Amino acid sequence: MAVEMLSYIDKKSPIHSLTGATKLICLLLWSFTAMLTYDTRILLFLFVASIVIFKISKIKLKEVSFVLLLILTFLMLNNIAIYLFSPQEGVGIYGTKHVLWDLPGRYDLTAEQIFYQINITLKYFVVIPAALLFMVTTQPSEFASSLNRIGVSYRIAYSVAIALRYIPDIQRDYRNIALAQQARGIDLSRKEKLSRRLKNAAAIIVPLIFSSLERIEVISNSMDLRGFGKNKKRTWYRARPFKVGDYMAITFLTVLFIVSIIVTFHDGNRFYNPF
């Protein structure tokens, strides 16, 4: 069976050995570092580091290729939209204008605009691998127990665990319903016209919605019957204490975040200007 999109992938790696809370804290620090800076040197360092971390995790590219393609498509559309709606944004930020290609109106292609959009692209390439690793290397129940350990209400933590578990369930349901409908003669292949395929897709979406609602009702009734939420605390089967690796990872990301902030804002401007 194919690996479900964004579902937990069990492997033996240093990334998998970290607790869910550690990975969440590291993801937040990593994301804040990437989002707050426009220093290309820092972004390039983070980009190379994200590739190394991805390699260490032993997650194969083909296991997350579909999600990557979706995100890269969105990134391409985002870059096109930035240029269409603000083609001189880079000029305004860096204060100079080096025209590479004369175009009508305000759409002159400038080195500053290209540099600005390269930084935007680097931000995506830095954050995306970290977010994907968090999703596919974190077991939902273990992550919920870790959240509860750092002070998050176990009700909220359990809701997060159910949401993470629900992603592969929806995918399996969609695949099963699609196969059943195709067995009944509903064609979803490229042989059909796009309008016909969209109409046929409704034959999958409607049963999927009803099966999802039914599953939600079953789960909520089961939790009510077991008295979920009655007590202030609960125990966790997959609870794990922090180890040396967890403290090292959090310390490293904290130091990286602080150094990034210092380097980014040392001159009062978070944009690195090579012009």
From TrEMBL:
Entry GO terms, CC: plasma membrane
The organism's place on the tree of life at top rank: Bacteria
Cell compartments where the protein resides: Membrane
Positions of transmembrane segments: 27-54, 66-85, 114-136, 244-265
Keywords from the named record: Membrane, Transmembrane, Transmembrane helix
Membrane topology label: Multi-pass membrane protein
Protein name listed in UniProt: Energy-coupling factor transport system permease protein
